[in-house]
Specification:
alpha/beta, Nucleotidyltransferase, domain 5, eight-stranded mixed β-sheet, six-stranded mixed β-sheet, 14 helices, 37% helix, binds adenosine-5'-diphosphate
């Protein structure tokens, strides 16, 4: 089955075209960045089974998401002849609120529900909706399935997802923890179980998605029981530009005692905090470079980043009743061996340790970095949200009826 995956962000669109059969093959992919700017960046990639990739890019303006989607569909039509050879489109939608716990077929009611959740995800859900609307317009015959970033967390028990605030806020305003990065946490948890040749429901796993945005999840018996992001993606770990956990009183203190209004404070928590707030840069590679030059603030940023993660690992260890596997994923998690090492040095108390030297272990890109005597498996797993969306979309649509073969 051919599935097109669309991931519309606030200023970007990514797409991947997969053939999902016994094997999963990436056929075409690409992205458009800096949408709305004079020099938008477009990249298209044609993949081949030999591993060679043909690339084409351009830097002409793409005025809005609708124009971006048209550019992508034009490219797909040129490559495929027509869109008829696709069976479905899977869209990433960031916020599914409490209504959506599984992949869902798009119809006008579902669109309305996604729209009603815009106040919960004002940057993301509107862009996601534009992607869906563009496909509806350009390829009305194609079934569209939405896969929610929040859905993996529907299994959280109330004691984990509720805040200790007046009950009426939950009833009237849906104030609760939702969690994000669910598609990534789900993908790497499944990949870990496959790699360890165990059923997911036999494992107690902590997954760390450490990119520019960062989150942790605790998974037991195949279901997620806790996660670090909350009502919005601001809660939890120290991130590139987001503060993660803070005392909520900080907001009121600043509003009363500085000339910043609430909007300004919210922007600063999201865009000028985290690593950037502490040492001025949000790219972890830059933070290391500064720390190596003796920059005290950069070292503090690394210490705080790792310490916060360790606090969550400790809490989830207790919540899970033990730990079988710790998974590192996303930009920092997959590439930063120093961060892996600092965090894993603290695992000794839980019986975990890692090898001093590690090499890639197989073609999936998964690395087992745990020491031979470690009681906790420590795996580095490249995340692939697009493939997870393609899998969930294909599973939702179900097996396609076979076309009658000629002569029968
Ligand atoms: P997002 O999708 O949230 O933007 P990514 O998963 O792409 O984030 O991760 C981006 C971050 O990964 C960068 O900001 C950078 O800090 C970090 N990163 C990427 N490569 C490396 C590396 N080799 N070493 C350390 N950090 C890295």
């Amino acid at each position: 089955m051919r599935v097109l995956v669309i991931n519309c962000g606030s200023s970007s669109i990514k797409f991947s075209l997969y053939e999902i059969a016994a094997d999963e093959t990436l056929l075409l992919s690409g992205r458009i960045e800096r949408i709305g700017e004079p020099e938008s960046f477009t990249l298209f990639r044609e993949h081949s089974t030999t591993g060679k990739t043909a690339e084409a890019h351009q830097t002409t303006a793409v005025n809005d998401h609708t124009a971006g989607m048209k550019r992508i569909v034009d490219y797909l039509r040129a490559k495929l002849g027509s869109m008829q050879s696709l069976q479905a489109v899977g869209h990433r939608v960031v916020h599914g609120g409490e209504s959506f716990q599984a992949p869902t077929l798009i119809n006008s009611e579902v669109m309305e529900s996604i729209r009603s959740m815009v106040p919960l995800a004002p940057l993301h859900n509107p862009a996601n909706l534009i992607g869906i609307e563009a496909i509806t317009q350009l390829c009305p015959q194609l079934p569209q399935v939405v896969v929610f970033d929040t859905a993996f967390f529907h299994s959280l028990p109330p004691h984990a997802y509720r805040y200790a605030v007046p009950e009426v806020w939950y009833e009237d305003h849906k104030v609760r923890r939702y969690g994000f990065h669910g598609i990534s946490h789900q993908f790497v948890a499944n990949a870990a179980a496959d790699h360890l040749q165990k059923a997911l429901h036999e494992l107690r796993i902590i997954t760390l998605h450490l990119g520019n945005g960062a989150s942790a999840a605790a998974i037991r018996n195949g279901v997620c029981i806790d996660t670090s992001m909350g009502m919005t993606p601001l809660e939890g770990l120290v991130m590139g530009t987001r503060c993660g956990d803070i005392d909520p009183s900080l907001t009121f203190y600043l509003a009363r005692n500085s000339d910043m209004g609430l909007n300004k404070i919210e922007t600063l928590f999201n865009q000028s905090s985290g690593l950037k707030g502490i040492c001025g840069v949000n790219d972890m590679r830059e933070v290391h470079r500064l720390a190596n030059e003796g920059n005290v603030q950069a070292q503090l940023a690394i210490d705080m980043f790792c310490y916060r993660i360790c606090k969550y690992i400790g809490a989830y260890y207790v919540a899970l009743g033990g730990l079988d596997a710790l998974i590192f994923s996303a930009g920092i998690g997959e590439n930063d061996s120093l961060i892996q090492q600092i965090i894993c040095n603290k695992l000794a108390v839980l019986g975990g340790s890692i090898k001093q030297q590690h090499t890639q272990s197989n073609t999936t890109g998964i690395m087992d970095i745990s020491a031979n005597n470690s009681k906790v498996k420590v795996l580095v797993i490249p995340t692939n949200e697009e493939l997870e969306i393609a899998r969930q979309t294909a599973a939702f649509i179900g097996p396609q009826p076979r076309r009658p073969s000629a002569g029968k």
